[in-house]
Amino acid sequence: MFIFHKETTLEDLGGGVTRRILAHDGKMMQVEVNFEQGAIGPMHNHPHEQLTYVLSGEFEFTIGDEKHVVRAGDTLYKKPDIMHGCVCLKAGTLLDTFTPMRMDFLK
């Protein structure tokens, strides 16, 4: 399956955050998330495993009780149901991979 960036839809989540759903099937999903400087990814949890790859920018991430600043090339793992969130320190883009896929993102 091929997913062409120009054929995907950019969804405005508000507060300086946009999301673009990329490839997905029943077992996994990839999502591009763009943040303006100062934008917040509020603390939340979900039953999915999640990998986040920092494509660009700088973010202060909290996962569970750990907090670290991450930059382009860094990867984060979030186990199911763990609380996590971020603050964007320098505008950037994250690439999230979920398993299973996030049905709630498809509306």
From TrEMBL:
It comes from the Bacteria. Gene3D superfamilies: Jelly Rolls (2.60.120.10). Residues 32-88 form the Cupin type-2 domain. InterPro entries: Bacilysin_H2HPP_isomerase (IPR052535), Cupin_2 (IPR013096), KdgF (IPR025499), RmlC-like_jellyroll (IPR014710), RmlC_Cupin_sf (IPR011051). This is Cupin domain-containing protein. The lineage of its organism: Bacteria, Pseudomonadati, Pseudomonadota, Gammaproteobacteria, Enterobacterales.
